[in-house]
Specification:
Largest sheet: 7 strands, mixed
Structural class: mainly beta
Strand content: over 45%
Number of strands: 11
Oligomer: single chain
Shape: globular
Order of helices and strands: EEEEEEEEEHEE
Number of helices: 1
Amino acid sequence: QVQLVESGGELVQAGGSLRLSCAASGRTFSRYSVGWFRQAPGKEREFVAAISWTDGSTSYIDSVKGRFTISRDNAKNTVYLQMNSLKPEDTAVYYCVADSRRSSSNLAASRSADYWGQGTQVTVSS
């Protein structure tokens, strides 16, 4: 069982930066692929980024490539999402996920994961 708690979401102006954090419980955190999904009002939930536990490979949705960076600190049981050059269309609730079976690319394709956090709101004003 893994519990995930996100933090770092807030209101920011377009062009600004935020770093989301996700603290995970569990002693085997290093053996989970972790990632971020988001859901904007009136839209379907979408994959944002993920990092595999096996080889550290990463996957990103095209709209955030070059602007967002996912990373993890296994010693702290924490995964981060550094978001730069934020745009109003990045406004959404961001959810942290963890999965023991899927790679980062599989998380991107499946739009599903074993464990989900409660979400943190990111609002980008124009």
